[in-house]
Specification:
4 domains, eight-stranded parallel beta barrel, 46% helix, binds phosphoenolpyruvate, binds magnesium ion, transferase
Length: 770
């Protein structure tokens, strides 16, 4: 228990250190005293020189810090690093790998215990304790303690190391090679610009609590602040109005509602009346809300804490100094923040906003939804990055790969600038293909459809020549509201989509919430949300939601007759039968009401392994099938699609996934039903080639990928693709399959169509290792 306390305090102390040397200094001194040992030192592996550098010590000569270094496999330090496990020696000097540095005064010490510091599989360095001759040797308990310290601190060390790396400096303070920081892709594209850190205008946590006698002035101050913030948000919403559809603008209404008298302000006023000064009362209320939301397991609800904190900061800054100064932004602003919020995004004029970077959040956050709608390259979830260091620096945002680079070398800048130019040219060049069919050189026809959510997607899809909508994610208009949209509201959203593509088909998926997609006003808290109450399971349990949605869809389709309905997350035949029953019921009711509508085609999504084995039975009951390869991959491989820790295991080119895809297409066709695919794999040129060869009738993807996929498919024969498919089905590793497909596409002359982020990362790696 005592050790546990030591550990807890140590982690806290290290977390509050300002830089790497301070953090490492704390580690060596605390570990030395906790273990009552004579020496504790940290060696870190410098990625540039590939040498272990003595970075901090308690017990060895301080002058040696930063000077003594060992080659990657040199000495006992190199041995610990390369074996990736602890080495505990009673008599280190007698070990054949012992290497002694007079600068450190190490000769006095005989026993040696070294443990590796490993973060996400990468050896960052080695933590060492040493004892003098005749002293005890380290026992098992001490070894276990040191391993625990090292495992707990690896993340913190990685974070502090990143601080230096952002300035382009190596551990030794020299110019380093370009270091990339990885997060989660938020919105595709590449941006090169200047980092502008949006920090809290006011620090709520720093506000002291204070009792006041004179309550009225505090109330007046607070009232003014609320009005000012209301106005501010109204202005931001107005500034964005031309770029956003009403459903996207609804986000700002949510903000304004939080500022309503009976919401947050009401509670603050109560506390002011109890004698707390306005700033303190605000702090208390906001912190209480934030704690409440942050404790929620649900991702989407946790995002609410961000909104509340943002509101709190805005109110505080008005309380503290009245008006905020107007900020000017550089031409290519890369907006960086610990927590980007939709309101922050609206503060930068669109033509100056090049990219977005957020430490917190994921592809599911409000900001990511808006960024995609606005086409701003975005990286989210950059957990190891110290935000404040990015102010004023040149930043490259790679929204394809979810990576950023800070202080890039001339070489890297040119490299990404070329990608930007190529992308622009490629897109322009592909415009000519808009009205051409997607047909292979040997006459095989495939339909290319788009996935949509927001209206902006629709506009872009039409200009890219999509032949219809293969997946309209109806949860998106539900997610940006603060209550279920009414039947009439839904009808308007749906009508827009149907009208934009008529007479081409528009496939609307019934509400697919749960998993990582939650509604603030309908919270679902579960231990395993992806294996829980999701998609059709929720809506069949709540027919009042399902029926209203289907009714809105059917009414919206009047006179257009291009609606198709698709059911998500089906794992049982009975779910299809129950849904069909409800759809028929609504169909008859709506007709009886006098609407001139046709019975829409109904399809099922194959995205759960069970459905793969019941494709025939499912297909017998519906008009079409569509594969959700995003979920199918996650469920077949047991890899959470949103968890960055296992992201490298999430692979749609996994042989098991490909075998399943082949089987689905064969079985659907065997019973005479069309089958399409609407997961991300369809928008990947290599994936599209394999899917076409498998016989998929339609590929549905995001609008940006469509022209590239069309261009590739139009330039090759189905026979060529079939041969490629046959070859890769013989391979057993996802990575080898991916390389094989990439290589074939490259040698067929399609290198430029591969995702620029992917190929750039690969090419850069080749360069670095060369
Ligand atoms: C899928 O799972 O592949 C799919 C298209 O649906 P979503 O990504 O919305 O879960
Ligand atoms: Mg899905």
């Amino acid at each position: 228990m005592a050790m546990l306390n030591v550990l807890r305090n140590l982690v806290q102390e290290v977390n509050s250190a300002h830089d790497l040397p301070e953090a490492l200094g704390i580690i060596v001194s605390r570990v030395q005293s906790a273990m009552e040992t004579e020496v504790c030192s940290v060696y870190l592996l410098d990625p540039d020189s590939n040498r272990y550098i003595l970075m901090a010590t308690e017990g060895l000569y301080r002058e040696a810090v930063g000077k003594v270094s060992l080659g990657y496999s040199e000495g006992l330090i190199g041995l610990v690093g390369s074996r990736e496990e602890p080495i505990n020696l009673e008599d280190a000097p007698s070990h054949p790998r012992y290497r002694y540095f007079p600068e450190t005064g190490e000769e006095r010490f005989r026993s040696f215990l070294g443990v590796p510091i490993i973060h996400h599989r990468r050896v960052l360095g080695v933590l060492v304790v040493q004892e003098r001759e005749n002293a005890r040797c380290f026992d098992e308990g001490e070894e276990a303690f040191l391993v625990t310290v090292s495992a707990q601190l690896a993340g913190v060390i990685a974070h502090s190391e990143a601080t230096g790396a952002i300035s382009g400096l190596s551990l030794t303070g020299e110019r380093a090679k370009d270091v990339c920081f990885s997060g989660v892709a938020g919105a595709q594209g590449v941006a090169i610009g200047e980092g502008v850190v949006v920090y809290p205008a006011a620090d709520l946590d720093a506000v002291p609590e204070k009792q006041v006698e004179d309550i009225e002035p505090e109330l007046a101050l607070f009232g003014d602040a609320v009005s000012a913030v209301r106005e501010e948000i109204g202005q931001v919403a107005e500034r964005l109005a031309s770029q956003l559809r009403p459903e996207e603008q609804a986000l700002f209404d949510v903000y304004l509602r939080m500022l309503g008298d009976d919401a947050l302000p009401g509670e603050v006023v109560t506390r002011i009346r109890d004698g707390q000064w306005a700033q303190g009362a605000l702090k208390q209320v906001v912190q209480q809300y934030v704690r409440h939301f942050e404790m929620m397991d649900d991702l989407y609800l946790r995002e609410r804490a961000v909104d509340i904190r943002d509101l709190g900061r805005r109110l505080l800054s008005h309380l503290q100094e009245g008006d905020q100064q107007d900020r000017t932004y550089p031409q290519n602003t890369v907006l960086v923040s610990e927590e980007l919020t939709p309101a922050m995004l609206g503060e930068v004029p669109r033509e100056q906003l090049a990219g977005l970077v957020s430490v917190r959040g994921s592809g599911n956050s409000h900001v990511a939804i808006l960024a995609r709608a606005m086409g701003v390259p975005t990286v989210m979830g950059l957990v190891d990055i110290p935000v404040n260091q990015l102010e004023g620096r040149e930043v490259i945002v790679d929204g394809f790969e979810g990576q950023i680079y800070a202080s890039p070398s001339q070489e890297l800048r040119t490299f990404y600038q070329d990608i930007c130019n190529e992308e622009d040219e490629l897109v322009k060049g592909l415009e000519a293909l808009r009205d051409k069919p997607c047909e292979t050189t040997d006459g095989h026809r495939v339909s290319l459809l788009v996935n949509t959510g927001l209206m902006t997607d629709v506009v872009r899809s039409l200009s890219h020549g999509a032949e219809g909508i293969g997946l309209y994610r109806t949860e998106v208009p539900f997610m940006i509201k603060d209550r279920f949209p009414s039947e009439q509201e839904q009808r308007e959203y749906y009508r827009e989509q149907l009208e934009a593509f008529a007479p081409n088909p528009v496939t609307m998926r019934t509400l697919d919430i749960g998993g990582d997609k939650a509604l603030t006003y309908f919270p679902i808290q579960e231990e395993n949300p992806f294996l829980g109450w999701r998609g059709i399971r929720v809506t069949l349990d709540h027919p009042e939601i399902f029926l209203v949605q289907v009714r809105a869809m059917l009414k919206a389709s009047e006179g257009l007759n291009n609606l198709q309905i698709m059911l998500p997350m089906v794992s049982n035949i009975s779910e299809v039968e129950e849904s069909l029953h409800l759809i028929y019921r609504v169909y008859h009711e709506v007709r009886e009401e006098g609407y001139d509508i046709h019975m829409p085609k109904v399809g099922v999504m194959v995205e759960i392994p069970a459905a793969v084995y019941q494709v025939r039975e499912l297909a017998d009951r519906v008009d079409f099938l569509s594969v959700g390869s995003n979920d199918l991959t996650q469920y077949l491989l047991a890899v959470d699609r949103n968890n960055p820790r296992v992201a490298q295991l999430y692979h749609s080119y996994h042989p098991a996934v490909l075998q399943a895809l082949v089987r689905i297409a064969q079985d659907a066709h065997a019973v005479g039903k069309p089958v399409s695919i609407c997961g991300e794999l369809a928008g990947d040129p290599g994936g599209a080639v394999l899917l076409m060869a498998m016989g998929y009738d339609a590929l549905s993807m995001n609008a940006a990928s469509l022209p590239k996929v069309k261009s590739v498919l139009r330039s090759l024969s189905r026979e060529w693709a079939a041969q490629l498919l046959e070859d890769v089905l013989l391979l057993d590793s996802p990575h080898v399959i991916k390389s094989c497909v990439d290589l074939s596409l490259r040698s067929a002359g399609f290198g430029r169509y591969l995702r620029p982020g992917k190929s750039s990362a690969a090419m850069r790696q080749e360069k670095t290792s060369a």
